[in-house]
Amino acid sequence: MKEELEKLKKLMDHLIGLFEFFDREDEFKEVSKILQQVNFRMDYILGNRQIVLSDLIEFIIFGRLAYFMQSRPNESNKKLFLEFLLGLINLLMKIDSLSVSENRRKSFIKKLLNEKLYLDEQDRKNLMMLKVWNRPIGMPLKEILNSLRGFQNLKKGNKKKLENFIKELNKVYDSVLPKTAGGLWHELGTYAFMLNLDLGYIIPLLIHQRIFSYSDYLVPPDFLLLTYDSKLYGIEVGGKKEIQSGLFSAKTGIPTITIDTSNSRVSDRCPICKSWIQLCPYVIERFTEPEVKERLLKGKFEIKCLEECNKYKKEEILNGKCPYSKYKQERGKSTYNSHKFADGKHYHWKCVLNNLNSETIEQIKQKGNRAIKTHILYYSGFEGLFKKIILGQEIITLKKKILKIEEIFKKILKGKDDGEGSSAHSS
């Protein structure tokens, strides 16, 4: 990925050089005049750095890298491309860990400041403000406030000022990274999910925030999906866009499917360490296997680590050596399911191990170890399409059986005819 970004940087420098070479030409001056008009400022193009950073990544993937899939006639390149997407999701999760890693965040902000990678003077001041903040950021306001000692002792007016300051700081933090808290990786994950299950032809519209006609415009969904039975669907990743999706469907007649990201299990932030729980290598490697696809079509996406994993030994997983294993336990009355982390939330198993006494840990290992799990990448919202796929598969299987039976009957009848022919000849 770094190599591709370096090449993109060189290409941008190339364009700058090209335009600088012609900057005295009349045509260049005319274009510059238009760009300088009040209603056509570059703010519309570069006003939101977070969106632009995400758009650049998506352009590299869907505008260039995706063509890698057609370079060979077999499926190996598609498998590699899907592994790349899932690995990139893990990388984006790691990048977003800057929200809870103050030292790494400060180092990164220092790099931006030292290399003058800010857009203007106000941007520089915002980065300076973020640099001196030594508490978690980029999370819901309530969680950040809970991490501040003495917040509850502040006067009401001071509380409000601090809340407003943190809201603004959250915006600054968001601006220095591609879409945070899953925005970008859910878009990539949804694409990978549709591609893996071969739901149809996928048209990414991620960098097209508006589709224009001369008299009107559309706010499109994130993808269009053209299924093999010639049906067209809009695919919107994440909720809270019902009005937008409804207007698109009303104007075009194209139905829109909303994909649930909050319950996708690719959004699990460990409540202890506050870091995202990444996709495990076992899941990434097996993602394209027929058996896994069959599980996903049936809505089954949970992996029991101790029973299925081939990356770590059972004892290693139980002792927290695997950084990907999750722990989710509903509350009960026994020692292994009545502790403070038995609340139905998803934790890093290694974090739970570090925060419970040895007696409880031993009970969990013996009686509650089925709560140690991970998940295959899965997004709900496609279930209606799954039913069609499963029905189609059943029809194909039935047709194959009928053809097989017909072949058997043909052989029987042919044998019968041959026998009758032989009898007639001998008489």
Compose a concise summary of this entry.
The protein is an alpha+beta fold and 427 residues long. The protein contains 18 helices and ten strands.
What keyword list fits this structure?
10 strands, alpha+beta, 53% helix, four-stranded antiparallel β-sheet, four-stranded mixed β-sheet, 3 domains
Mean pLDDT: 88
- Overall, the morphology is globular
**Strand percent estimate:** 5-15%
- Report the biggest beta sheet as strand number plus sense, adding barrel if it closes: 4 strands, mixed
Tally of discrete structural domains: 3
Termini separation: 82 Å
* Gyration radius, in Å: 28 Å
Say how many strands there are.
10
The topology string of helices and strands comes to HHHHHHHHHHEEEEEHEHHEHHEEHHEH
Question: What does this protein structure show overall?
Answer:
This protein has 427 residues and is of the alpha+beta class. It folds into 3 domains: 1-176, no CATH class; 199-259, no CATH class; 281-375, no CATH class. It contains 18 helices and 10 strands. It has helices at 2-21, 26-35, 43-46, 49-64, 76-96, 102-114, 121-131, 141-146, 156-175, 183-196, 242-252, 281-286, 290-297, 305-308, 314-318, 349-353, 358-367, 383-426, and strands spanning 201-204, 211-212, 217-218, 223-226, 232-237, 256-259, 302-304, 326-327, 347-348, 372-375. It has a 4-stranded mixed sheet with strand order 1-4-5-6, sandwiched between helices. Strands 7-10-8-9 form a 4-stranded antiparallel sheet. Strands 2-3 form a two-stranded antiparallel sheet. Helix 5 packs antiparallel against helix 10 and helix 6 (102-114) packs antiparallel against helix 7 (121-131). It is globular and about 95 Å long.
